[in-house]
Amino acid sequence: MSWWDPARHADRRPRLLARNRIAAAARDWFAREDFTETDPAALVVCPGAEVHLHAFAVSPAAGAAAWLHTSPEFAMKKLMAAGETKIFALSTVYRAREDGSPLHAPAFTMLEWYRARAPYEALFDDCATLLEIAATQAGASVFAWRGRICDPFAPPERLTVADAFARHAGVDLMATMDASGAVDRDALAAQMSACHVRVGADDTGSDLFARVLVQCVEPHLGADRAAILHDYPVVEAALARPSPRDPRVAERFELYACGVELANGFGELTDPVEQRRRFIADMDERARRYGERYPIDEDFLAALAHMPPASGCALGFDRLVMLATGARDVRDVMWAPA
Length: 338
Description:
Elements: H1 6-32, E1 36-37, E2 43-44, E3 57-58, E4 66-68, H2 73-82, E5 86-94, E6 107-116, H3 121-138, E7 143-145, E8 148-151, E9 157-160, H4 161-169, H5 185-189, H6 205-217, E10 224-225, E11 227-233, E12 249-257, E13 260-267, H7 272-290, H8 298-304, E14 310-316, H9 317-325
């Protein structure tokens, strides 16, 4: 049955109206916090540099390479370099190979925001507020997903990645990391017997880290109340700066509710030299795995040198609405799913 079938639409419509209320209330909250809403273009010369994110390529009339953005991050950081200090965007983003799951769609809505000169812990509080906004506008006392229940009004639990690995996988993560924050593949594999995760002969330390996180840790996060998982190994930092408390970890966090990842936030890296090094390393790994690489956005690196210290977060808006309304699939809360 198509999403536009009248009977199906009538069933979906209450959740869609709740989506509109949540979006309006979120915009009102950002306005009260003195944020400026932005509207980054979807067509970009570089769709990002994360190894496992796949973008949709397009063919402009001029013939230059271009993609649909996987996130408005680069554009929004350029706006921060231009002088903006508190900005947000509610944007449609596009990711290939993201269909076939109740939590994924090739086109979805991302809520992204940045605070100049704010510690990244300030975003923890922002996330808690957005959970409350979503629940209030949906008339929900709890979030629910596949039998898991979460109280969106309770203060989120805060735990480090190392604490979560010890609690849910029996792994001493810090013991597997060297001074640079790299996870030693063999050291981690030696501790993984308790969590029954497959170890492949060609797996890297990052592969095993991700597998333990997804299979052993994430399902337990955000039970009873939301969870903020923070202090990722610096090699998993993406665009986050190293922590001043321990250079082996980065100021990166993720928000979970009912075992579902909702948001990914950073204390933003503003060092263009280090960011270039990470981009090159990530694209080398992408080429090894997938036989392709995306170009480096030189304009972004130029802007990064002018960007003030800042913290930023990207939240999957459809997932938030799904949990708040009790939907079973993100497509059930999209007006016209792709």
